[in-house]
Design brief:
58% of the residues lie in helices and 10% in strands. With 104 residues, the protein is mainly alpha-helical. It has one domain. It has a two-stranded parallel ribbon with strand order 1-2. It is flat, with a radius of gyration of 17 Å. Residues 1-10 and 12-17 have low confidence and may be disordered.
C-alpha cells in the first residue's frame, strides 16, 4: 500500500509539473497535442477568458485563440474560479455561452 501511495503521489506531481510547463513555456505550449491537432477541427470554438485569471496565463489563452481561430469572450472582473462572482455576472456569463451555442 505504501508503494502504491508513493507512486500515486509521484504521478500526481509529474502531471502537475507537465501542466505547469505547458502553462509557462511557449515552446512546450505550441507542442501541446490539442493545439497541434487544432487545424483538423472543423467546428467553431469559443474561448472564455477571465480578465483577472490568476491560474491560466494570457499566453496560454492567446495560444488557444490562435490555434482554433476562436471567438473570444472576456469575462470582465472574473478571477479564475467562479465562486466569488456575483449571481448577476454569472447570469450574463451563462447567457453568453448559451447564446453562442444556439448560434453555432
Amino acid at each position: 500500500m505504501i508503494i502504491f501511495i508513493k507512486y500515486w503521489w509521484f504521478a500526481i506531481i509529474r502531471l502537475c509539473l507537465k501542466r505547469l510547463k505547458f502553462l509557462s513555456d511557449e515552446e512546450a505550449l505550441s507542442s501541446h497535442p490539442l493545439l497541434v491537432r487544432a487545424a483538423n477541427l472543423k467546428g467553431k470554438t469559443l474561448v472564455m477568458v477571465h480578465e483577472h485569471d490568476e491560474v491560466v496565463p494570457k499566453q496560454t489563452t492567446d495560444a488557444y485563440i490562435k490555434a482554433f481561430d476562436a471567438e473570444v469572450y472576456v469575462a470582465k472582473g472574473f478571477p479564475h474560479g467562479l465562486s466569488a462572482v456575483s449571481d448577476d455576472k454569472l447570469a450574463v456569463y451563462h447567457q453568453k455561452i448559451s447564446d453562442w451555442l444556439k448560434s453555432n
